[in-house]
Amino acid sequence: MKLKQVLINILSNAIKFTQAPGSVTLMIERTNVFDDQSTLKFVIKDTGIGISEEFLPKIFESFTQEDSGRHNKYGSTRLGMAITKNIVELMNGSISVQSKKNEGTEFTVIVTLKNCEHSEYDSSIINYKDLRVLVVDDEQVAAEHAMIVLDEAGIKADIALSGEEALKMLEVAHTKQEHYNLVLLDWKMPQMDGIEVAKKIRERYDNETTVIILTSFNWDEIMDEAMHVGVDSFLAKPLFASNVIDEFERIARKNNMSLFKEKMRAELSGRRVMIVEDMEINAEIMKEVLAIREMTVDCAKDGEEALSLFKEHEPFYYDAILMDVRMPKMDGLEATTAIRALDKEDATIIPIIAMTANAFDEDVQRSLQVGMNAHLSKPVEPDRLYQPLEELIWEAGGRPESKITYSRIVRKERYPSALFPSASW
User: Fold this and answer.
1) How many other C-beta atoms are found inside a 10 Å radius of the C-beta of residue 241?
2) How far apart are CA 348 and CA 300, in angstroms?
3) What are phi and psi of 42, to 5 degrees?
4) Which residues pair with 396 in a beta bridge?
5) pLDDT by residue (tens digit) across 71-130?
6) End of a domain among 49, 83, 114?
7) Tally of domains in the chain
8) Within a domain: residue 371?
9) Which of 34, 87, 280, 351 fits as disulfide partner to 392, beta carbons 3.0 to 4.6 Å?
10) Which helix (H) or strand (E) holds 95?
């Protein structure tokens, strides 16, 4: 409820201070996951009147107004932004603002929340980065919106503005053996509607792809005909990525597609890891633990030294960093922020694992928000350390020859192999 209040307040201000023609956008991204928690970033951007550079630092103060003359025009005391900031900080989150006069304003809210209960099915059984989707809609705005929504969820999508164009794109993809795994078809289109296009897809390509009809109308009147020509399901507009994913997986389960997947892991032998720890005895213990798996270790006694070590070596010199959170001079949160901001090829992808005496306090939330990949509580048991190292190094793109596959997938022939992560069969 409080998060909703925060977003409504910022969005209301954005709309209030944006004159036509203009735009207001809300983008939501899950930037990190740890155990039962997720870090969410909300970005609200408008093309409105903006805020002057002099007034910007006062934006979150109570009863402050850049121009008192606006009170009559816009009816605002600015008390809402002060309350908004307090709510966000009570949630152990952060709020920031960027703005230019007469160009617009952008608010960013970052909070870490507990995940809701998930269904018994693992939503990660399909590698959505390899999923190719074709959106077919004669309304260009609707088609582009669908593509943006899917892209932000990590799903690659192309658009076609007519049934004829869609069939040509499908033909090219089929010839190149780069099949579309899913086609989202608008029902109401001129010349060739969604039902006709679906029928031709099934005639030409059989079950090579999944077909879902999109509509703003009640689809009861066309359900029988659509199912007869080979449509797999229906979705209502406007399109949300979560709805597409849920429906695609429902279709997969309906067609008895069984998958058994564990995360891929990398071999640790020969890896180079940086330990950032101000307590010498703790660093020595960690070195011994990593040496058991034949890893090479460099040590830094604080965040400043860690940043210096990382900067002075070539990209990909280190495979991972084990970062203590609470340290003098520069703590782990500051060091991680600095590393992620570096203009180095590996700065944004190197696995950084946080270590604290308590993995259940606000350190967990803060570490995720600054870009750490995992969080371990001290003392760290060897097995609890090896597994995230193996998985995160693999995900970061470690050396192929030193990877181990811990994955088994079983599928039915209906779904093309491009849907699934690489695996041994």
Assistant:
1) 18
2) 20
3) -110, 125
4) none
5) 445 444 345 788 899 999 999 999 999 999 989 999 999 999 998 875 444 445 566 777
6) 114
7) 3
8) yes
9) 351
10) strand 94-100
